[in-house]
Amino acid sequence: MEKIKLKSNKLKSRVCTLLFTLGCLTAWSQQTVTGTVSDEDGPLPGASVVVKGTTTGVSTDFDGNFTIEANTDDTLMFSYIGYAGQEIRVGNQSTINVILAADNKLDEVVVIGYGTSTKKDLTGSVSSVSSEEITQIPASRVDQVLQGRAAGVQVTQASGAPGAGTTIRVRGGNSITGSNEPLFVIDGIVVGTNFNLNNINPSDIQSLEILKDASSIAIYGSRGANGVVLVTTKSGRGTGTGKPEVSVNLFTSMQMLPELPDILTREEQIAFTNEHNTFRGVAIPFPDDPSTYPDNDWVDLTTGPAPIYNADVSISGSSENVNYYNSINYFNQEGIVNSTGIEKFIFRSNLDINLSDKLKAGFRINYSRLKNNNGLTSFGGNLFGTLRTQPAFNEDGTFNGFNDVVGSPFNNPLANFELNTNETFTNNLLGTAYLEYKPAPGWIIRSTFSPEFNNVKRNRFNSSQLPGNLAVGITDGGNASVRTVASVGWNNENTIQYNTQLGENHSLTVLGGASFQKVETEITEAEAAGITSDATGFNNLGNSDPIRSVVTSDYNGFQIASFFGRINYDYKDKYLLTLVGRTDGSSVFAPGNKYNFYPSVAAAWNINEEEFMQNQSLFSNLKLRASWGKSGNQAIGPYRTLGVLTEANTTLNGAEVPGLTLGRPSNPNLQWETTTSLDIALEASLFGGRIFTEFNYYQKETNDLLLDVTIPRQTGFTSQLQNVGALENRGWELLINSTNISNDNFNWNSTVTLARNKNEILDLGGQDFIDLVVDPIIGSGNTRLIVGESVPVFTGVNYLGTWKSQEEIDASGLTSQVVGGSRFEDLNGDGIISTEDNVVLGSPFPDLIFGFENSFSYKNVDFSFFFQGTTGNEVFNLRMRNHYFNRAETVKFGDLRDRWTPDNPTSNIPRAGSDSVTNTPINSEYVEDGSHIRLKAVRLAYNFPTDKMGLDGVKNATIYLNGSNLLLFSKTRLIEPEANNFNEGNNQFGNIALGFLDANYPNPRIITLGLNVTF
Q1: 282 CB burial (10 A radius; 0-12, 13-18, 19+)
Q2: 830-834 CB contacts, 8 Å cutoff, 24+ apart
Q3: What is the pLDDT of residue 23?
């Protein structure tokens, strides 16, 4: 009996061992899981299925089906916009069907740095923009459609020229001399702050996430202080197994000139000009009847409706082990101003392959070729500013090249269009290849290598036959230049992640990684003058005067090495904690200052998970979160810590010889600008998910600002770049999403975004203020950095109207004043109007930034409209110098119809001839209210019922009519309040010189007809 019992015990032991082994194998095994995601009305195409704690995920196909590879101990997260998410443990299930209940934003999956998360589990501040929102406004660049769609993100369309970029500020600007643009990360590739977004096809983008607070941006360390924009492109996930899915997106648009500023008519301008010269005691330029002079509307002559053509085709698909997405895009936009336009060819290929149960590989390749016609004339200076009486042609039919009113050559734009060239070609290849290995459940090891090749060539040619030169006898030939910029860079990211459940109540995800990046750029430029023949243009620079030829070259490069980590802890889905740290080292700093560490901590409390919230019906989700941390900004380019040598010829033995001198002092003590941020937020989903709202309050302080500081002249220099300043941004953001009506036939949804940011300088290295020269013509004093004010403020003297009598002038103590002339406030009473009388006139920062969208659907018809705008910001009208106060050789604003005259002695608009650029200081009339409301987009679409129409093989088809920039309500004389004259790259203060208007290229009104079909 004992032997039998012993055998029985051995048998039990072996069985237990076998069961344990099978259990382990089961726990470690990977299997294919299929299923359907639906709501109570049917399948949900495009729903997200993600393996929790990983980047592995798919989207459901048109019938709501999905297929995904997962381990038995994995948890799948199911989510869809407007629905409450679900999490289901895989176990031994090979089929999982899910029905999602209506909810709102808190359960959608969002991309974060080096991973994904549900909105409910976020501890940081992240704004998401979906592909559907991106395609609502057809555009050549994705940043052009971001205005008003993300709270706390101010997007300014600086120019309406084809392919023109935007200025983006995430919770205000943090730097004075450094860039304030956010960091762009495309499919995990850090492409920097100045990546040309024309290289990316908006139709290829799956989603955009904007990381805003310290918790979310600290993972990007020294480069995240200005916010991070994560761009995720599409994959073949969700297309379902079987034949490939083909999507075709076609649209054509017509651009039209928007409303233009009010200016004097030909007759009014002639009267003003003659009155001006009469007052000055010089001959009048228009002695004859006004009807005998030309009446050329130069804007009408050089602008007109312009088309846009777009065609992109994508082929995507998935199988058990492979998913892919390939697309090709052709985009051609002619400009409403002649000689402007952009043409683009873009190819993308995304591929993911499951090499085994544990090993996955893939790549992302994006190639683009762009051609930009950069324009051959200035809209503000040449088109808007030229007198209507200026002839375009001579009597013999040749181009006119002389301005009789001014007595100098005339830059004829019509001749420029025909004779000159200004074009840029760009070739960009951006790619990444990755390997992902899962050695055991919960573990993910991932390595990526991402090269980028960028080549830019700009060709310029000015003809020898320009009429302005010929009119004054200049016959020294044309001039041309060829400039090439070639850059090569690579980025290597390596991460290891572990995700585990500690009992029933604790969840832990740990991420560690290392990142390495190197970029090298070479610039070569050749300029030639004295080109006697137009036949070869810029293609033969040797056909020129060799004495006047100039050849230059340049090289720069940098390297960054980074090490980072993140810990996410979750207790009972109630209490969330995130710890992030990153150490960055950069070659742009001197030894001893190359490395810095950026930590952050964030916590969140899901209040709705508490017991005391279980018996209420108001909140379906309620979360309080807070974060604190540091992030950085390199703020300087390569070699700025070093002194530089500049050319300085000298005389040796009576002969001039070339030499070098130290042109800039070195400063090896330069270090990173550091921003410390605090964010507190409340998120709530109410009334069964019909309303989702999120409120954020934040405060950011940036220290060690890099500024040029005055140093003793005994050093041989006047200034040196140092870390001395500090500034602060603080504000709030509010997002409201609501489902107003939802039934079988009709849906109405609304979105409101509101944000306010207060920017303030805390320290300028001991100085009270610094004057900036943003424009050499208007000089210093008009733009100033002042401790206690925003960065920057507009300054000048107060304009008090006009002098009404000689007695007023005599009593003022001011000299050289005339009755009817401009009157300014002598603040210090010294009898002189100067910069000593300057006061703060305004700030380009709005009191409020807002966006408002409503979308409606009735059966197969969709309709939406979207407004965005600002209130409380001022703009600086650079055109006031020429078109209001200056002499009469330029067009004048319509205001001057009511100018001071002996018959209109109470007018506060100066009389003709009383002012010129030499005696009219920058004043309060230059600064105007920049508040505005823009109808950004209107869309009407019809979704064909393909299933009822018998269109076999057609999954969906939509035809739509879209309008962009249809209405603009603005108080500025120039109408367009956003067209900033300065931007990073063409002005040393372009990163902070906001709100300067100069009648820039107008933003056109656009009507688009498009068709989307998926087979």
Answers
A1: exposed
A2: 833/797, 833/921, 834/921
A3: 40
Q: φ and ψ at 782, to 5 degrees? A: -85, -25
Give the amino acid at 658. Answer: P
Q: How far is CA 115 from CA 80, 568, 582, in A?
A: 18, 12, 16
Two tokens, residue 539: 């293609």
| Amino acid identity at 782 | N
- In eight-state DSSP terms, residue 203 is G
CA distances 480 to 411, 544, 682, 764, Å, are 17, 9, 59, 43
What would the pLDDT profile of 72-127 be if each residue is shown by its tens digit?
A: 878 888 887 556 678 888 888 889 998 887 654 555 678 888 888 877 778 888 88
Structure tokens at 602: 């964030």
CA distance 97 to 63: 12
Residue 138 tokens read as 């057809």
What values do phi and psi take at 143, rounded to 5? -65, -20
Non-local (6+) Cβ contacts of 349 within 8 A are 324, 325, 326, 363, 364, 365
| The pLDDT of residue 368 | 97
* DSSP 3-state of 848: strand
- Interacting residues of 358 by C-beta distance below 8 A, sequence separation 6+: 30, 437, 438, 439
Between CA 487 and CA 493, with CA 488 as vertex, the angle to 5 degrees is 135
What is the distance between the alpha carbons of residues 133 and 397, in angstroms, rounded to a whole number? 51
d(CA 501, CA 508): 6
Predicted TM-score of the model (pTM): 0.86
Residue-wise pLDDT for 912-942, tens only, equals 988 764 578 889 999 999 999 999 999 999 9
Query: Residues, the chain, total?
Result: 1015
CB 150 within 8 A of CB 229: no
